[in-house]
Amino acid sequence: MTAVLVNGVFSDSVPAADRAIHYGDGVFETVAIRDGRPELWLQHVNRLRKGCERLGFTAPDPDLLIREAAQLSRNRDRAVLKIIVSRGSGGRGYRAPGEPSPSRILSLHPWPEWPEEYRLRGIRVRICNTRLGCNPQLAGIKHLNRLEQVLARSEWDDSAIAEGLMLDVEDWLVEGTMSNLFMVRNGGLLTPDLSRCGVAGIMRERVMEVARRRGIRCEVGRFAPSELAMAEELFLTNSIIGIWPVYRADTNDYAAPGEITLLLQSDIENTATGLST
Amino acid sequence: MTAVLVNGVFSDSVPAADRAIHYGDGVFETVAIRDGRPELWLQHVNRLRKGCERLGFTAPDPDLLIREAAQLSRNRDRAVLKIIVSRGSGGRGYRAPGEPSPSRILSLHPWPEWPEEYRLRGIRVRICNTRLGCNPQLAGIKHLNRLEQVLARSEWDDSAIAEGLMLDVEDWLVEGTMSNLFMVRNGGLLTPDLSRCGVAGIMRERVMEVARRRGIRCEVGRFAPSELAMAEELFLTNSIIGIWPVYRADTNDYAAPGEITLLLQSDIENTATGLST
């Protein structure tokens, strides 16, 4: 069973009038819990705040969120904390209430049982047929309108394939269904621009920081799927998986983990604790 | 207070694990209730079924839906019935459960108190800055990912403006935030193509049917906002409002109701009852 706090109260349900249900009118965060503490907390809370701002309402008080997060996750070695913040109930149709009362839905989930090889020896990924629509106004936000990811993830059932890469409607590489994408080429990083669609991941940001410190350049741009063939290494990131090397993407094979991937992975893992508060 | 049936049981809440909350993973219908009966019921149920199919799950049994609809709406002169069908709970992240148990959330709402002039003398509309992203895979479906409509509707607060028109990211006219758009030019109808974004409205379909019967031609295509200036009449449709003439769109003025608008409006209103079962 999953423990859920809805607006601070243990509950297994959400008010039927909540705008998350009706319109996906909110944002979410997926936070790694290790030794009872949320990792990269400030980054998550910061993104949550910015996401709410872009949707036009005020995020809950971070102190309230950390108290509720602690209430759910203390004494848990490893777990996943999901935080949903919606605009709350009310309004008339699409029209939001003048003074929204955002709702908080915090739930604690078991740590996913991914094979340790995914992290150590890499994964195989496919390219999804489902495309991401482009809308700069929503791009980057981890909002609750996630049908494209659901449809993309429904395309395969083969357990040998751990993730799917998604292209936008103009056929540019964007991200994985639940992760961000990096390519290594000539010793530097390439990662898709997220100003038209996609989710600006916390771990993507961390990787770019760590690379900067190492003097590894990182180019953010538009990349066609054909560029996968030119990459020396490939890896995926998110807050829960950290970095997963990719050993095969579609028909392209890679050394996994590659040299740069391994370096960044070890930097990320070694600094994880220091960044968790 | 709103009466809500969640999976057949009166309730004011929805399971916290429901995929409508997490991903907007479902569809909805907004049905006019008159004299205790749902109007255009077959059309609504048909669209619901097609929407679920396109999202990859099976819609609830229509007999079950009509029983629940009747349970909520009998003895009500005029009300709005909202039906949400989601893929239900479960799955791992975006991945849907292999055998989903879709949920049904039926809620009855008061009939909106729109001024009678809207229908009789028309409304004023603006053009929204919020754009619709294009994704043919989701286009036309009345799904639960509605952030674009929420953001568009939040752009104005002036009660003199009843609706906003939305363009797609390539600046083509698509629809209103909660309605479909028709222009009248040279005595024929023009309405935006919805194969890349937008919601294929039940009332839009009805208007096209009624027009066909009257021998009024209807062209579905891509229209730029500049074409608003060339229209002789303009009107908006949805299942609740029926047809609203438009007397002003942005800086363009129209006779409202225009001749063709009035004709279609009267045809729709006269046949409404006959179609309600």
Task: Describe, in plain words, how this protein is organized in 3D.
The structure is a homodimer of 277-residue chains. Chain A is of the alpha+beta class and 277 residues long. Helix content of chain A is 25%, strand content 30%. Chain A has seven helices and 16 strands. In chain A, strands 8, 9, 10, 11, 12, 13, 14, 15 and 16 form a nine-stranded mixed sheet that branches. Chains A and B meet through β3, α1 and α5 of A and β3, α1 and α5 of B. β3 of chain A pairs antiparallel with β3 of chain B, so a sheet runs across the interface.
Quick rundown:
With 277 residues, the first copy, chain A, is of the alpha+beta class. The first copy, chain A, has helices at 19-23, 41-55, 62-73, 116-120, 147-153, 202-214, 259-271, and strands at 3-6, 9-10, 13-15, 26-34, 37-38, 78-86, 103-110, 123-127, 163-167, 173-176, 180-185, 188-192, 218-221, 233-238, 242-249, 252-253. In chain A, strands 8, 9, 10, 11, 12, 13, 14, 15 and 16 form a 9-stranded mixed sheet that branches. In chain A, strands 2-1-7-6-4-5 form a 6-stranded antiparallel sheet.
List the helices and strands and how they pair.
The structure is a homodimer of 277-residue chains.
Chain A: E1 3-6, E2 9-10, E3 13-15, H1 19-23, E4 26-34, E5 37-38, H2 41-55, H3 62-73, E6 78-86, E7 103-110, H4 116-120, E8 123-127, H5 147-153, E9 163-167, E10 173-176, E11 180-185, E12 188-192, H6 202-214, E13 218-221, E14 233-238, E15 242-249, E16 252-253, H7 259-271
